[in-house]
Every structure is written in C-alpha cells, then in structure tokens.
Design brief:
The structure is a single chain. The chain contains 13 helices and 8 strands. It is of the alpha+beta class. The strands form 2 sheets. The protein has a 4-stranded mixed beta sheet with strand order 1-4-5-8. It has a 4-stranded antiparallel beta sheet with strand order 2-3-7-6, with no helix packed on it. A hairpin with a 2-residue loop joins strand 2 and strand 3. Helix 6 runs parallel beside helix 10 and helix 8 packs antiparallel against helix 9. It starts with a helix and ends with a helix. Bound molecules: flavin-adenine dinucleotide. The site of flavin-adenine dinucleotide (FAD) has 18 residues, from strand 1 and helix 12.
C-alpha cells in the first residue's frame, strides 16, 4: 500500500468511526449498554472479520479506533486479556457452540478473562506443566497451581492449560480449557510486585470442575491451541497492545453499572506504564533538555527502534498472510521490549534528580517513575527475551534446535527421572 493509499484508508476509517459515534455515543448509557452497542458494531476487535464479530480491518485499526473514541470523548471499546488472546484462540479452535457462548461476552466486555498458563515449575518450559485434569463423565476435575496470573481476581474465566495425559511426551498430553473461576475448588491470592501493585496472583485448583463442553480445540491438542494464544499475545505486545483494558471488563471490574459518560473521563492507569515518543520530546522541552546532546542521541536511537518495530509489524502481517509469522511475532515482542525499556530510561535521564520522586509529588504524578519500574517486566511476560531469541534463532535463522532430552519420553517418565536426579538416585 502506498503512503497515499494508507493515509486515505486512515481518513476513511476516521470518518467511519466519527459518523458512527455521532449517531450512537450517549454518555447517559451504562457502560454495559454502551459496550454492548460497541461490541455488536464490531469496534471492539475491528481487525476480526465481520463473521467473527469485527469489521475486517487491518490489525493497526484497533489502536486507531480506540484513539478516535477517546478524542471524541466517548468511552473506549472494552479491552483485556480475553480480547487480546482468548477470543482469537476460541475463534480459531472452538466449535460453533463454544464460539457462540464465549466470544460475544468478550467483545461486549461482559466477562473478563485471565491467562492460567505459568506454574511454579513451568514458565519458559511451559509444556512441563503439571496441573492435572482427570475426566469424570462430562466433567474434568482439575488439581494444581498456577502463578503470575495477571488480573485473575478481576476475571470470570481463565485460559487454563492442564495435563490430560501424562503417559505421552509432554507436548502431546495437554488440553486448553475455558475455565470458570467462580467455584469452590478455586483459591486466588494476590502477589505484590516491585511496582507496589498486585497485578499478579497465584491460583490454587483443588478438585475444580470444568465442563467437557469447554475443552477448546480437542483433547490433548492443547499445545497447538496454545501456539495460537501465544501468537496473539506476542503480536499484540509487539503492536503495543493494551493488556489490562480500561476500565476493566466484566462484573468484577466494577464499571458495567457506571454511566459511560463518567467512565469516559477516567484517566487510564495503563498510560502510566507506557511512555510514547511524543511524551518524551514534550518532556525534554518542558525540562529544558531538548538541546542536551546525550538526550538527543538517545531520542534518535529510540526513534530508530520505533521505526524498525513498525516495519517488523508490517513484515509480520505479510508473513501471517502467507501462513507463517511465529518468529516475527517473537522479534516484534523483543523490539517492543527494547522500546519500552529505553523510553523509560530516557524519561528518567531527562528528569534527572526529579526522577527520584515517586507518586503524586513526582512529575506528572510519578508516571515516568512508574513506567521505569514496570519496564523490566516486559523482558519476562509473554515469554522471556531469551526464549524469543531461541525461537528467532531456530525458526528464522535456521540454527540447531535447543537440546530437548525429554522430547520423546512420556511426561510421567521424565518426571520420575527428574525426581530421582533431585534425590540423588540417578
Ligand atoms: C508482568 C507479567 C505478567 C505475567 N502475566 C502472566 C499471566 O497472566 N499468566 C501466566 O500464565 N503467566 C504470566 N506471566 C509469567 C510469565 O509468562 C513467565 O514469568 C515467563 O514465561 C518466564 O517463566 P518463569 O518466570 O518461570 O522463568 P523461568 O522459565 O524459570 O526462567 C528463568 C530464566 O531462565 C531463562 N531460560 C529459561 N529457559 C531457557 C532456555 N531454554 N534458553 C535460554 N534461557 C532460558 C529465562 O529466560 C529466564 O531468564 C507474567 C509475567 C510478568 C512479568
């Protein structure tokens, strides 16, 4: 697409969004009513096809639409992990019944989701997870522990990975469940991070129940389904997607009953975590640092990273169209991590000693300091930098695969070996 075509498409999208908002935005509606309208009109995920509940627009339209809603003074479409990962996963792997039951509530912000993948013994080696699901008629009984589960306290459903067959190699015995969190077998405890917030949780599953009808993508086929979830997580992060969503979707988020016009005025806390290039040039001017050669050099480096990141997003789109793209998703995620960290670092360089003041007394209510303490997390969530580099090395550069001694051994056998090694018996 030429830049002329691109800007025409941008203008067409802007006029389409604005005329829809002029006809529909009503600050007197409740958030629930407004999000229902927005979701049914396809604005929550405009990059999905019309049949899937979107508007068949490019991936980048999502951010543009949200910005247009905000500049019109309207409450943005719902966000959150359900929209980022669960909806596209279920759309790709679910049955028509599963899609019908799970996707519209996500697009309309009626229910919130979290991701129940990581465990105390399974992060980078996600396929080594040991949460167990045992079938009992039309139900699965689930026991185990998840950790680092962002927003689990506010969620209604979890994208849960559990082992459904321990007698096959680890990747082959996992299933992906749309798991209801509000039940007696589930205990959720908050974990406080270095930011001072408790986005994280640990989730204990003790005989928790999931209907067989909510096993997505086929029994023991969870690893293939997980690749879709991770692809959307990484491309979403690579495209600078907003994880948390604002206000939080679902009944526990506390926004559904509020007036949409009131909720539209809230300042998104997510803004605290992301420092844009425009924020930095404005800050440099305000602090009288725009002539400082060191700052200028870092800003120029950051600008180059951002341009490379944008080209990478385009490359990812082209490769995804051709049926590939997993390694580009990894490179995109690495690129976004580098941008996030350098942006926060430059902000603190510009602030100088003022960057040591946190909270309300800090510059712009301490948002740059908040971004700085959150930035290291970007190297970890969605798969660590090292893992993204492994994927890029193996799938893009064609380097030899990482050593995988347990590849052809059943999970239970590998576990026995591991336990024996730990106890000194092997
Ligand atoms: C802000 C944030 C939000 C998160 N949200 C969620 C969530 O909602 N749901 C969820 O399930 N998880 C979540 N996570 C967890 C995240 O996915 C894991 O932390 C991550 O996958 C790493 O796993 P780990 O912490 O067990 O580290 P480990 O896997 O133990 O890794 C430790 C170190 O070893 C390195 N390493 C491990 N294996 C290799 C290898 N093969 N080659 C090279 N280096 C290697 C890693 O890169 C890392 O530096 C979140 C994490 C963060 C920081």
């Amino acid at each position: 697409m030429s830049s002329e075509d691109g800007s025409k498409a941008g203008t067409d999208l802007a006029s389409e969004v604005v005329s829809w908002l002029e006809a529909n935005w009503d600050p007197a509606l409740s958030v629930e009513e407004w999000w229902r309208l927005v979701g049914r009109a396809g604005w929550s995920a405009p990059h999905l096809s019309v049949e899937e509940g979107g508007r068949g627009l490019p991936r980048s339209a999502d951010r543009q639409v949200r910005a247009l809603f905000a500049s019109h003074g309207a409450l943005r479409p719902p966000g959150g992990l359900g929209l980022l990962m669960a909806a596209p996963t279920i759309l790709r792997h679910g049955t028509p019944d599963q899609i019908e039951r799970h996707v519209p509530p996500i697009l309309e912000g009626r229910l919130a989701w979290c991701q129940l993948f990581s465990e105390p013994g399974a992060g980078s080696d996600l396929a080594g997870l040991s949460t167990r699901a045992v079938r009992d008629g039309e139900k699965w009984v689930i026991t185990g522990q998840k950790v680092w589960s962002s927003m689990a306290r506010e969620a209604d459903y979890g994208m849960l990975l559990a082992r459904t067959n321990p007698d096959v190699p680890k990747h082959a015995g996992i299933s992906w469940f749309a798991f209801p969190l509000d039940q007696p077998g589930v205990t959720i405890r908050p974990l406080r991070e270095m930011t001072g917030e408790a986005l994280f949780n640990e989730v204990f599953l003790d005989g928790a129940i999931c209907d067989h009808a909510d096993l997505i993508g086929g029994e023991n086929n969870g690893w293939a389904v997980t690749q879709t979830t991770l692809f959307f997580e990484r491309t979403g992060i690579g495209a600078g997607g907003n994880h948390a969503g604002f206000p939080n979707p679902g009944p526990k988020g506390g926004a559904l009953g509020r007036l949409a016009g009131e909720a539209a005025k809230d300042v998104p806390p997510g803004n605290n975590k992301v420092v844009s290039f425009g924020d930095l040039t404005e800050l440099a001017q305000r602090m009288g640092k725009n002539d400082d050669p060191q700052i200028r050099q870092k800003l120029a480096r950051l600008w180059s990273y951002i341009q490379i990141g944008n080209w990478n997003v385009r490359r990812g789109k082209a490769e995804a169209k051709a049926g590939g793209g997993a390694s580009v998703a990894s490179i995109g995620k690495l690129s976004q991590t580098r941008i996030m960290k350098l942006s926060a670092e430059v902000a603190l360089d510009i602030l100088g000693p003022a960057g040591m003041v946190t909270g309300e007394s800090g510059v712009d209510h301490g948002r740059f300091v908040d971004a700085f303490v959150f930035a290291p997390a970007s190297s970890i969530y969605g798969g660590t930098d090292e893992i993204q580099r492994n994927i890029a090395a193996e799938r893009t550069l064609g380097l030899p695969r990482d050593h995988r001694p347990d590849k052809d051994v059943s999970f239970s056998e590998a576990l026995r070996h591991q336990q024996a090694r730990r106890s000194g018996r092997a």
